[in-house]
Amino acid sequence: MNELFETFLQNHDLSGIRSIEKSDLHNHLGKGGNVRYISSKLNLKIDLPPATFESLIHMDRWFNENIRKRCPFIKRFEAAFVQASDDNIGVLAASFGLDEQMTIGGMDVNAFIYEMKSFNQQIAPDTIFLPELAFERRCDVDKELSRLDEVLSYNWFKSIDINGVENQQPIKNFKKIYRKAKEYGLRLKAHVGEFGTADDVMEAVEELELDEVHHGVASAKSEFIMNWLSKHKIQLNVCPSSNVMLRVVENYSTHPIRKLYDHGIPVTINTDDLLIFNQSVSEEYLNLFKYGVMNAKELNHIREIGLRQIDFYEP
Ligand SMILES: [Zn+2]
Q1: For 5-57, how does the pLDDT look when each residue is reduced to its tens digit (9 = 90+)?
Q2: Mean pLDDT on 258-266
Q3: What is the Å distance from ligand 1's center to 233 Cα?
Q4: Is the model's pTM score more than 0.90?
Q5: Of 41, 103, 125, 186, which sits 20 to 30 A from 77 (CA to CA)?
Q6: What is d(CA 260, CA 267) in angstroms, rounded to the nearest whole number?
Q7: b/e burial code for range 240-277 (CB count within 10 A of at least 16 → b)
Q8: Helix axis angle, 2-10 relative to 296-307, nearest 10°?
Q9: d(CA 155, ligand 1 centre) in Å
Q10: Average pLDDT of 270-299?
Q11: CA-CA-CA-CA torsion sign (139, 143, 147, 148)
Q12: Per-residue confidence at 315, pLDDT binned at 50, 70, 90?
């Protein structure tokens, strides 16, 4: 398997890369499908996104106009499982918020869980699905906390996350939520160090006792924080195309995953929002190889780090 993956990378053989098992650990499930599937199923013409976005707000506006308004949320979830199956994603840790499933979808938690389990079994039976509960950075923390016990009592969610614009409220406001999630045995993650700083990453890991960070690429600006993350084995779930399109980094060639990996930080390669950034996990690997950021052996090592995710969970 190892040599095959490396050979496929060296030959730029995308279908070969697709055939090898990989993980996707930073995936917003409602944006996790691919445009081709949605277009053909709903007979929609979806324009390509711009090459780069000005901001997360610009990106959200594009997504609302071009996809969210035109494609029912349940179809987008279905598309994400189709994508996991097509790209041989053996471990899929994917997130969604309570409002997405209940307010917009009009479903209770039980119905939603049933629906997701059916998608998993029927569309992507070989994919281990690790559902992640996501909170918006701007959310009302006390309101979320008040319904957390009920949601977690289903013992279905495996991890939690905070996403959205990083400076909307201090990360320490989420401490109560993270304490409770820890009591339930969830793996703790948050979006941080995407548009924020290296210090923000360290603060979030310390305050919330994070096991993993979504993005965290800003850490590459601090030797001290990179060494600290490495020492504490804090995994960074990196999404190169998202970083390029949101202008977090200048281009693929100079992507900081190189530096983070060289400092011994466990990194993984992921899609973030495939419906927007249009690059599958396989394409993300191939891009990093083609642009000379990582060699085939290193990329295979990263693939193995991703698949080890399953060791963190009880069967
Ligand atoms: Zn994300």
Answers
A1: 999 999 999 999 999 999 999 999 999 999 999 999 999 999 999 999 999 99
A2: 98
A3: 20
A4: yes
A5: 186
A6: 7
A7: bbbbbbbebbeebeebbbbbbbebebbbbbbbbbbbbb
A8: 130
A9: 23
A10: 98
A11: positive
A12: low
C-alpha 258 to ligand 1 mean position (Å): 20
The sheet with strand 159-163 has its strands ordered as 22-28, 89-96, 128-136, 159-163, 187-192, 212-215, 235-238, 267-269
15 CA from centroid of ligand 1 (Å): 26
Please say if the pLDDT value at position 103 is more than 90. Answer: no
What is the Å distance from ligand 1's center to 12 Cα?
27
pLDDT tier at 266, thresholds 50, 70, 90: very high
Cα(187) to centroid of ligand 1, in Å? 16
What is the pLDDT, as a whole number, of residue 162? 97
- At 184 the three-state DSSP class reads coil
Q: Is 153 helix (H, G, I), strand (E, B) or coil?
A: coil
- Structural fold of domain 2-310: TIM Barrel (3.20.20)
Ligand 1 mean position, distance from CA 11 (Å): 30
**Domain boundaries, given as residue ranges, for the chain:** 2-310
CA of 108 from ligand 1 middle (Å) equals: 25
Q: Which residues of 282-306 are buried (b: 16+ CB within 10 A; e: fewer)?
A: bbbbbbbbeeebbebebbbbbbebb
Residue appearing with tokens 């990582």: 294
